[in-house]
Amino acid sequence: MIQSPYLLFIGDATDPLSIKMARSVADWRAEKCLGEYALPGCEVTTGCPALDIDQAAERGAKSFILGFANSGGHLDERYLEHILKAIDAGMDIVSGLHDKLSNYPELVKQAQDADVRLVDIRHPSLKLKTGTGKKRSGKRLLTVGTDCSVGKMYTSLSLTRALQQNDISATFRATGQSGILVAGEGIPIDCVIADFISGAAEVLSPDNTPEHWDIIEGQGSLSHPAFAGVSLGLLHGSQPDALVICHALKRSHMRGLPHVPQPSIEETINLNVSAARLTNPAAQVIGIAVNTSAVTDAEATAWCQQTSAQFNLPCVDPVRHGVDELVRQL
Amino acid sequence: MIQSPYLLFIGDATDPLSIKMARSVADWRAEKCLGEYALPGCEVTTGCPALDIDQAAERGAKSFILGFANSGGHLDERYLEHILKAIDAGMDIVSGLHDKLSNYPELVKQAQDADVRLVDIRHPSLKLKTGTGKKRSGKRLLTVGTDCSVGKMYTSLSLTRALQQNDISATFRATGQSGILVAGEGIPIDCVIADFISGAAEVLSPDNTPEHWDIIEGQGSLSHPAFAGVSLGLLHGSQPDALVICHALKRSHMRGLPHVPQPSIEETINLNVSAARLTNPAAQVIGIAVNTSAVTDAEATAWCQQTSAQFNLPCVDPVRHGVDELVRQL
Predict the structure, then answer these.
(1) How far away is chain B from the Cα of A143, in angstroms, using its nearest Cα?
(2) Is the residue at B63 inside a domain?
(3) Same domain, yes or no, for B214 and B258?
(4) CA-based nearest distance B126→chain A, Å
(5) Whole-angstrom Cα distance, residue B147 to residue B227?
(6) Which residue in chain A has the smallest CA separation from B201?
(7) Of chain B's two ends, which shows fewer C-beta atoms within 10 Å, N or C?
(8) What is the pTM assigned to this prediction?
């Protein structure tokens, strides 16, 4: 559990993609974000008001969020002095980097002295068990993708919000760093020990009331040579009643792998439905969510209409068209 | 890398299944095993000569193998005095338990003083990367199963030995604790971080000469709700040219899950071939290996003949019939 409100630390980032964690929480949980703390040279913003550490502490900030990422996931030593200052100001430190905060003795000592926590989102401390495949009560939807980074988190959050606005009880279940920060809790599914992937997914969406929907953030793709194992364990443990296929237009190949072509929507439907039925024979695809940002409005609408007709399923861009058509299926 | 020769410590085990690790290495690498060390009350044996720690040290034992397992994978504190004694005698300590040897300060200190290693097989220290799906040179065979514990390690070791006896260059690639102990190296694939399953499998069977066969020990089953993610990542990373389907007769349900029925051989073939083709379009099943220990010789032979005819593939029990029919396919 991550305590809010947050101060979002974005360092001296210059690439908007590198502050995805900070931007996700600013976009989806603005009420949790007191402000952002940037260093000289920073060229990007979350849109939150600029605050320094003392100002944020005065306003009650409970967590100092390392809201940036870099390739390798290393913690830049230049940032340590700012983290130490936030600890002194009484904030928990929350990191989604590969490098563990708890590997820095000076941070550990200072955190003990100040009685605050070092929260390494990517290093789950939860004791996990292997999956059981046993049916749980309540209803579940999982977003699955043709590829990584096609909008599964955005679609899941949009669906959760839309269900709640329709007075349907729904909970967003986070499986990645950004989602965890938005939700304030969750399990970083690609960071658990391989033996426990589906067991972790089972714990993530426990028994619930019969009409409740858990909207589970998907990860990776069954067609991605690097991450399909994670996607399959998450699918089996989630036992989804409903699947939403997520896709992004104008990708020529799988993310990070120029030699691997993208699967078709049809393949993605077939792969996911047949795998999902191992733990939920009633699993079905209820719609398609497409990131159409690479094309014009008219092209987006045409593509969605054609795809909708082809598969006899609603097909929308959650950003351009909203997700009401998907929610009606639930 | 685990240094041989070994002294196999089996504690006071009473269940032959609980010393699978010790028995596997005694069966498959007798030349690496100086003897076994049992405590009063032990009712099982690996068949190796009984030796105490001093005797084994005199004969040059380099590793003291914790050759037992228990549910939970905990290290019984009663065993610490024996481990400490083996450290004093200059042996590395090798454990496949969940509990890490390095979590016991007295073991860590004594190992430092004696300049020996604490080797936690289940806690790989290797720096791993995510998979790439890039084709590697050399040939690969992966054993895959209808379920867990159906003979994938035994089949893989049998195939490796038979290929070598036919003067075909072949290497057994271990992915579980027992296999790692037999091979002296390997990667415990179900113990890596989920993100790195297929990346670990890629590292496990690196580029090789064109005619070389890596025989990769499979894990779990694509139809097992707990472990399918591991199986899929291993399959994608292994890029097998050849698959051998492993099966055990007279199982009524998936191991550990009484509510989950077993898949058919046909389903298992289809699932594995279609998934394997993501990273190796030429992947094909070359035969079926069955553990027939639950039936008579005559029933075993009849079952294998019928199955062989049904799928037009060789079908053997590696223990009863050997694996020559499978090797001829390679």
Answers:
(1) 17
(2) yes
(3) yes
(4) 14
(5) 10
(6) A226
(7) N
(8) 0.94
